[in-house]
Amino acid sequence: MGTVLERCEPANPYRPADFTESWENMKNNNSRRIAGRMKQLLLFLAILLPMLFPVSARAQVTNMRVGSGAARIRIVLDIDKAATFKDKSSDNLISLEIGTEVKKTLQKKISDETVTGVVLEKAGKKAGILKISLKKPAQHKVIVLKNPNRIVVDVYRIQIIRTSKDLGNGLTYTFWQDDMNGLPVRVYALSLSPDSKYELRPFSGAGSANGRGRLTRAVSLVGARAAVNACYFDTDGWVIGNCKWNESVFGVESTPRSAFVIDKEGKPSVQKDLAYRGTATLPGGRVLTILGLNRQRIANDLVLFNRNYASGTRTNEHGREIRVSKGRVTEVSAKGNMALDNDSLVLSGHGVNADALAVVRRGDRVAIDQTLGSRMADEARLVVGGGPMLLEKGKINVRSREEAMAPDIAYGRAPRTGIGVKADGTIILMVVDGRSQYSAGMSLKEFAQYLKRFGAVSAVNFDGGGSSEMVLDGKIMNRPSDGGERPVSIGLGVFRK
To answer: What H or E segment, with its residue span, contains residue 420?
Structure first.
């Protein structure tokens, strides 16, 4: 038998059919790999690009609120992101273009004497317009706030006015009508520059003697160009507060309190803790404590009188009085109402103090010593006491408790009168109206803040309430809260030098 041989061809991996199939597979695999990598790259870029180049979305108004106060109406736009605005207001319409998206119109109707309505409308795809309709022209202020983002529009029922007039020779008058945290206030100020040709002097409200009187009349009598009320007083005109001009004393206060002082060199300041102490040393060395000056004599009292009080001591016969001139007794009397003159002092005693004066004879030596507890104040040209201190070294320091001020002075808002001193020596006399729809008055801290805003670095409060008054060139500049002038005891006048 023979062997049959079959032809066998080796397998060829490069046959056209096999090659085509492998190439197609390779292309498909590469495409899938490239597509996957592209997806990864796009995802990476989607994460990275916002971090490198943040895109800020347009702000949107989320809410509109309207509030009403005594002095203003406040419109608040709550915004989810910071936004800008353009003010395009006219006399009777406050119009603001807001850089925000407005999805729907927001509207508020208001029943008010100033504002009639508020509407926020869409003004294109990326802007809104806020319209505030007015019955009459009114001032407004726009505030942009953050954390949270808000645009605030304050529409003032009263105009904010600050005007100043140069009166010449270093004297300036300022009127300021302001919004004080939602309350209307009116401020009146007189400023005297350090080189002013005017000076300050105290005078009696009654004109020539202790007592009370209308400030306009007293200013005319003494010849001042301007004046404000100053020291506290009792109903009979008794001055409560240390008050003197040169050697002429009007009243004293034994409670340590602050006062405005011009020293012997002419430098103004506010001094704290000034308190009157007076003694009379009788023959034999007995020392009596003077309990008051230029006021009504009461039981077991010892009062010192000078010509500023009246023409006489106004006392009755139930006491004893001695006149002292240049350290010697020139007259003794038990009749009361001893005459007063410019060259002597009168000691008037009652009860135990009258008995002490009974041993004194005409010609005896009697030493009268007086002090305010400060050599500078004792030698000062001018001392006008009030209280409490308001500003000290440029900082608010209301010392009501330290100076034992009465609650009706220390607390609440009221008309105010006070005086401040700037760093350059400029003096500011200030009066604030209160207890009316035009002006709410101020607390002592608020009063201190306004004096500071005028530039004062030190300041003290004077008598206030219905007594607060400013007179300039014969005219009452403010609106006294009593509806008219309240008779006062001491005025502080602006006089030509």
So the answer is: strand 416-422
What is the reported pLDDT for 55? 47
Say whether both 303 and 332 belong to one domain: yes
The answer to whether residues 366 and 246 belong to one domain is no
52: which 2 tokens?
């490198």
Are residues 353 and 438 both part of a single domain? Answer: no
79 and 131 in a common domain: yes
Would you state the structure tokens that stand for residue 285, as one six-digit string? 């060395």
Q: Are 494 and 230 in contact (CB under 8 A)?
A: no
Return the top range by mean pLDDT from 110-124, 148-162, 176-190, 439-453.
Answer: 439-453
pLDDT (0 to 100) of residue 41 = 65
Do residues 424 and 195 touch, judged by C-beta distance below 8 A? Answer: no
Residue that terminates a domain, selected from 125, 156, 187:
156
In this predicted model, what pLDDT tens digit does every residue of 219-257 receive, in sequence order?
999 999 999 999 999 988 899 999 999 989 999 999 999
Give phi and psi for 290, each to the nearest 5.
-75, 125
Q: Are 403 and 454 part of one and the same domain? A: yes
3-state helix, strand, coil in the chain (%, to 5): 15, 40, 45
Strand partners, 347: 304, 322
Average pLDDT value for residue range 174-200: 95
CATH value at residue 77: 2.60.40.3500
- 152 and 244 within one domain: no
Tens-digit pLDDT profile for residues 298-316: 999 999 999 999 999 999 9
- Residue range(s) defining the domain that contains residue 352: 277-371
- Which residues, 6+ apart, have CB-to-CB distance to 288 below 8 Å? 279, 280, 281, 282, 302, 349, 353, 356
pTM: 0.78
When pLDDT is cut at 50, 70 and 90, the band that residue 57 belongs to is low
Question: 136 exposed, middle or buried (CB, 10 Å; 0-12, 13-18, 19+)?
Answer: exposed
Domain boundary among 350, 371, 392: 371
CB 274 within 8 A of CB 374: yes
Residues 181, 174: contact at Cβ < 8 Å? no
Sign of CA dihedral 159, 164, 167, 173: positive
Question: Do 265 and 281 fall into the same domain?
Answer: no
Sign, Cα dihedral of 432, 435, 441, 445: positive
Q: Identify the DSSP state of 479.
A: -
